Amino acid sequence: MKTTAAAPVRGRSLWDDALIRLKRNRAATLSLGFLVAMALACIIGPLLTGHGYDQVYRSYVKVGPSLTPYPRAETVAPAARRALRRARVEVGEDIVIGDGIVRIPVSSEGELDQRIVRYIDRGDIFSGARLEDLAADGRSAVIVADIEQLTFLFGTDATGRDLLTRTLIAGRISMTIGLLATVVAIVIGVTYGSLSGYLGGRADLLMMRIVDVLYSLPFIFFVILLVVFFGRNFVLMFIAVGAVEWLDMARIVRGQTLTLKRQEFVQAAEALGVENIGILRRHIIPNLTGPVVIYMTLLVPKVILLESFLSFLGLGVQEPMTSWGVLISEGARDIEGNPTMLLFPALFLTSTLFALNFIGDGLRDALDPKDR
């Protein structure tokens, strides 16, 4: 009688076990989903709002958030009168509004100049103005114009720009700076720290003293020096933040490397004649992945906060581009007149930071070898 061999049992790797533990952490998984949704909203959202991030609506400065489109029906007639104030015409009392069109009766002591419709089209409320029902003597007519329907879900800022679009664009800048600066900090910190810890001796002493000297430089002083040489731009933020934050990573990696290089598998590789670069690349750095990934999730919110702080001081992203720090700075100046200018950017920033911190806590628990 033939017996079928049982299928080999496939074991779980440490990474598979960590992934299962991470999925069980509801706060971390929800935060990861929220972060993905936030990134997609910042990438795709500005294309769907119907407003440019630098488009100015002079007729809608500091308007509040609303689900219904502007202008309000009660503001159309006063806006038409204000627009024709310099046209030297008499505006009738019976302004008719309906079906997205306004009809404004006008009259003049002399013959009407047909160019008066330009006064109507100058603002953001009306468009396509034209003269109709012109009298035989040319002294009276009706100006007909389309009413532009504009929706501002988050309202507008102090210059009349859509706050929703600018908040989403600011998210692009803040998260991009956070990710890029974090990648730079990790690449430099992991390379520097692992090399220092593995070489040891005088090399380690010299490399760590260099880190101590860089630690002693005030961050703001370092940023001001970069502003003098590079100016205020996106590259400055990338260089300034990334070139400073690698110091913590280097210290963390050095401490882990000092522990790893005493392990049996590293000593075996040394006994087999593997070069130092090969040991670092194959044995030391791969075993540092857990702490590095955890620190990366905690470094991204720190970098975003640093960028917001620098932009708040006026040393970061410059107009017309924006970031969450810039928007919070503008909202803080106008908090009494329009608190929503501060509320929405601050809400986006704090929710993103909370999500990143929850993900970091989840990864720390999932990758902790003492908690398996």
TrEMBL record:
Q: Which InterPro entries match?
A: BP-dependent_transpt_permease, MetI-like, MetI-like_sf, OppC_N
The alphabetized UniProt keywords are:
Cell inner membrane, Cell membrane, Membrane, Peptide transport, Protein transport, Transmembrane, Transmembrane helix, Transport
In terms of CDD domains, this protein maps to:
TM_PBP2
Cellular component terms per the entry's GO annotation: plasma membrane
Q: What is its main location?
A: membrane
Any one Pfam family here would be: OppC_N
Residue ranges of domain ABC transmembrane type-1 in the record: 171-360
Q: Which residues cross the membrane?
A: 27-48, 176-199, 219-244, 292-315, 342-360
In its UniProt record, which GO terms are filed under biological process? peptide transport; protein transport; transmembrane transport
Q: How does this protein lie in the membrane?
A: Multi-pass membrane protein
Q: Does the keyword Hydrolase apply?
A: no
Cellular localization per UniProt? Cell inner membrane; Cell membrane
Protein family according to the UniProt entry: Belongs to the binding-protein-dependent transport system permease family. OppBC subfamily.
Q: Please give the name of this protein.
A: Oligopeptide transport system permease protein OppC
